[in-house]
Amino acid sequence: MRIHLSSVFVDDQEEALRFYTDVLGFAKKNDVPLGAHRWLTVVSPEDPDGTELLLEPDAHPAVKPYTSALAEDGIPAASFAVDDVRAEYDRLREAGVRFTQEPLEMGPVTTAVLDDTCGNLIQLVHSA
After folding, report:
1. Contact 110, 103 (CB under 8 A)
2. Label partner for 34 (CA 20 to 30 A): which of 44, 85, 87, 106?
3. pTM for the full model?
């Protein structure tokens, strides 16, 4: 068994697509119209057949209270592995990304947390 698809709820699919592709560097995989919304997924360009991330509309009434509570408490909605947290932090800060947690070493793990501009905090992580 392996993870095929995961999702983050977003308040604006077009803005999310721009952020996740142009800023974070993911590649668009699927973009299927579904009425007012889209089945919109991105993947790592390093693994185009790997796990897809669904940029899911936050239209369900339960979503906004849930995502707001996570963000207010500083809890990331997702975690992305990177080779070097500090290098990604520097690159993304230069691109204008706002971080809520600077790189933090915790034993063999380094993390940083960014705001995806679409309602989520996202953790970057590297394990030594």
Report:
1. yes
2. 44
3. 0.95
Q: What is the CA radius of gyration of the chain?
A: 15
Token pair for 5? 């698809």
Q: Do residues 9 and 107 make contact, with C-beta atoms less than 8 angstroms apart? A: no
| Residue 117 DSSP class | S
85, with CB counted inside 10 A (0-12, 13-18, 19+), is buried
Residues in the chain: 128
pLDDT digits (tens, 9 = 90+) for 31-88: 999 999 999 999 999 999 999 999 999 999 999 999 999 999 999 999 999 999 999 9
